[in-house]
Amino acid sequence: xxxxxxxxxxxxxxxxxxxxxxxxxxxxxxxxxxxxxxxxxxxxxxxxxxxxxxxxxxxxxxxxxxxxxxxxxxxxxxxxxxxxxxxxxxxxxxxxxxxxxxxxxxxxxxxxxxxxxxxxxxxxxxxxxxxxxxxxxxxxxxxxxxxxxxxxxxxxxxxxxxxxxxxxxxxxxxxxxxxxxxxxxxxxxxxxxxxxxxxxxxxxxxxxxxxxxxxxxxxxxxxxxxxxxxxxxxxxxxxxxxxxxxxxxxxxxxxxxxxxxxxxxxxxxxxxxxxxxxxxxxxxxxxxxxxxxxxxxxxxxxxxxxxxxxxxxxxxxxxxxxxxxxxxxxxxxxxxxxxxxxxxxxxxxxxxxxxxxxxxxxxxxxxxxxxxxxxxxxxxxxxxxxxxxxxxxxxxxxxxxxxxxxxxxxxxxxxxxxxxxxxxxxxxxxxxxxx
Length: 435
Ligand code: EPU
Prior knowledge:
Mean pLDDT: 94
Number of strands: 23
Largest sheet: 4 strands, mixed
CATH class of the largest domain: Alpha Beta
Number of domains: 2
Distance between the termini: 21 Å
Radius of gyration: 22 Å
Structural class: alpha+beta
CATH architecture of the largest domain: Alpha-beta prism
Bound molecules: uridine-diphosphate-2(N-acetylglucosaminyl) butyric acid
CATH topology of the largest domain: UDP-n-acetylglucosamine1-carboxyvinyl-transferase, Chain
Strand content: 25-35%
CATH superfamily of the largest domain: Enolpyruvate transferase domain
Low-confidence stretches: none
Number of helices: 15
């Protein structure tokens, strides 16, 4: 077991380079199953979620070769149907994309209900509605999802999503690309990674139009060929570094970003008094005055992303006055579990359902805390960087699911953060015996 130890309370300066988008990679790796040929994928983030998805793909028979730490060649030619290993699938939410890609490739799929960040109810009814519309019968028995087109294959159809779900939009695209005829997704999600998955599939020969708008049209093709693709930079990772410098003060250049994708995040930080300058594929971000309070409502893209909600809350803990944060994406879930951890550091926050009221304090104080999930963990890192004194963060495996080299990137900005081994009581006893 490892933890992060942070000595906070000082501004950060320097340059940081953003990695490939986790949530695009999370769909593109399973999407490679649809391709008959070698796809070279560049800019894959070196994070445990991507590694786990590649492990699943390998278990399905793919030949995967590491070209360098962020580039892989994946060859799924000539594979035949295998079941997704349940124990791997349970570990990660994005494993549900194998349902779409297997339905697309084999006309059937069987998998366990997906795992992932545990912040409450995360149904997949819209995915199932989409698969049904494309001619698959879907049943969930004892936590196992069975989807089957009964050898009729996928047939294009109209699907109207009740919620603009990222996962359902991508899963329907994956199932439909090799299907017969046209599939139309209405009320589709518009996040940048939806466009990236569509661009990946199109560059391998698919015919998808309209990704990035709420109406996506997919005309089925008879096969996908190998090719080359580079994943977009991670909007949320970049936003997390914006939040870090907003909290600590200082000035950093965030490189390898698509500034347009950041606008939904940076607009809110500008309101809080942060300056942001676009510099081609980089942004210069800094703070030279006290933080102002702000009200934040999470929304589907291009609204403020729910995946930045914990990080901005950590920053607002030190802003002047009162801020109100409303969670509008995960309406039925508790994405405020981390608030109890921030309170240990002296934050004044009151949570009522999906609203958090933050009363700014002058300083946070370092404390032992834990990462409740991926973005909550990022919020604890930010709070630790801002706080006076020492913060120890446990359960950092959540953070490392989605942030490549967060420790060395922050150290490069002058932060005092280290990843240290926590010795368990058993190790302690062994050490004593062997000493
Ligand atoms: N929803 C349903 N039914 C469905 C699907 C979704 O009710 O069939 C609801 C969800 O419960 C939630 C809302 O719709 O309230 C949005 O869910 P969505 O399907 O868009 O989310 P997701 O695909 O499960 C992805 C990201 C999440 C990110 C959300 C929202 C991946 C692997 N995960 O999840 O990322 O929070 O979109 O943008 O792409 C993260 O990176 O930390 C993370 C949790």
